[in-house]
Amino acid sequence: MAPQWSLFDAEGNEVKSSDFKGKPLIIHFWATWCPYCKKLQPGLDKLYKKYHDQGLQMIAISLREDEGAKPQDELIARGMSFKTLINGDKVAMEKFFARGTPTTFFINAQGQVVVATRLSDPNDPRLEQVVKSILVN
């Protein structure tokens, strides 16, 4: 089962794992300085947009940021439609045991982690395959 967590977005709004209860979810751990994250994100965003109407949720969690980094502004500048939470180091490392970026978790509606991956190829067909698998109830 996916761990319980709570973080804040750039505006100070709290977001909790329970907000996504009963919904398939992609959690994308990333950093603004990570070139592999920048490469992967358009592929994740495409999948999020394609399957959002079928209930797919997505949240990014920023970690290991440089002083003064503005992760949400960076995603907006990159044209991404998903939100990010900030200061996610503790959640990434202590709850998900994610050691590097990008690390992406695919969680089904029952709250089970189906796949955790370090893939950075936005066109890897396995990404869409796993999204389809977590949409099945």
Keywords:
single chain; 137 residues; alpha/beta; Glutaredoxin; seven-stranded mixed β-sheet; 7 strands
Q: How many domains make up the coordinates?
A: 1
H and E order: EEEHEHEHEEH
Tell me the strand order in the biggest sheet.
2-1-5-4-3-6-7
> Would you tell me the overall average pLDDT?
96
Please render the helix and strand layout as text.
Elements (H helix, E strand, L loop, with lengths): L5 E4 L4 E3 L8 E6 L4 H17 L5 E6 L8 H7 L5 E4 L2 H7 L7 E5 L5 E5 L7 H11 L2
Parallel strand pairs: 3-4, 4-5
Antiparallel strand pairs: 1-2, 1-5, 3-6, 6-7
Question: In short, what is this structure?
Answer:
It is built from four helices and seven strands. With 137 residues, it is an alpha/beta fold.
Structure description:
The chain is 31% helix and 24% strand. A hairpin with a 4-residue loop joins β1 (6-9) and β2. It has four helices and seven strands; from the N terminus they run βββαβαβαββα. The longest helix is centred in the first third of the chain and has 17 residues, at 35-51. It is globular and about 40 Å long. It has helices at 35-51, 71-77, 89-95, 125-135; strands at residues 6-9, 14-16, 25-30, 57-62, 83-86, 103-107, 113-117. It starts with 5 loop residues before the first strand and ends with a helix. It has one domain: 3-Layer(aba) Sandwich (Glutaredoxin), CATH 3.40.30. The chain has a seven-stranded mixed β-sheet with strand order 2-1-5-4-3-6-7, sandwiched between helices. With 137 residues, it is an alpha/beta fold.
